Amino acid sequence: MVADDGGKPAELSKSARKKLQKQERQAERKAARKAAEKERRRADIERRRREWEDALAAAPSDEARAEMVAARRETRRERVGRRAEERGARADRLRRAAEGAGQKVVLDLEFADLMRPNEIHSLTQQIMYCYAVNGRSANPAHLWLTGCSGEMATHLQRIPGYDKWIIERAARPYIEAFEDRKENLVYLTADAETVLDDLDMSKIYIIGGLVDRNRWKGITLKKSAEQGIQSAKLPIGNYLKMSSSQVLTVNQVFEIMLKFVETRDWKTAFFHVIPQRKRGEAETRDDVEKGGLDDNDGAAEGAADGDHSEEDLNKGFGEEEDDDGDEELEEEEADVSNKRQCVRVENGEAGDATVAEVEPNNGGGGGGGDR
Question: Where is the SAM-dependent MTase TRM10-type domain positioned along the sequence (predicted)?
Fold first, then answer.
């Protein structure tokens, strides 16, 4: 509330109260989802522990139990080996992308001073998801973070393993980092008049890193115009009739671009990434009869909107959870007669500190980062 001239807090308007109540409900639902996910994971760990203990208890002899532990240990070794291979293959793909094979995409992080702390936090999560989905892609982009300084850099540095990311980082603005290629810069903004027909490998596409809930409308278009660089928007209107704004989150725009590089089909890319609830009347009768364009649509509805779980992010970093609690099994191998030891989950490098949620509709660079 804002104080009036008499020093007393002024009453919120009806629309302001409704907006505040909506935000409070969203926060409550988010907290409930996180609590439910945490409880599900805890119950799953406990279930697996009981199943392992029961299996050991049912073994006919100490020798049989020793064989079970040895087999489990070998399974773990194989799984660790596969993960190492996957990490190596992912690193090779990302390095090839950086050497010229990947579409150049810049996340413009110069807007930190316009965002609230929770919005910077949300943007950080969206950046994490961008990096994760890029690592999973068969044709990853050459991804840049520019204007990566101050509070934004501080938030990113808190991500475990961030310093090991195979990504370009620049504290200076993109206009300086690419001053010799200014003619190739294209700012993606929902307010642009030019519509992208294709992605050009010679171009450097910029996504505005801004979560602002519509406070700074038109800011990215204005920025690109003042800098004298090109601007364009994704051809969403050619394929979808959105139920709300065409401005998408940073990770949605980035994943759409990756999907287009893979398929060379905008419609497939949009339907794969944009959640169904945002599409309005997008799907034609034929699409509905066919059951939609993408079998992964349900998953896309959550992940694409930035509302993703720790498991989603961990998969992208290639540090999935060790489901079997192998660290505890090392102790069981030394003393197989002690069958009632607890099994502990061993998290991957990026898992512990990845916050699971990014608020829906919290905005990003979308068709340009204006919210």
Answer: 90-281
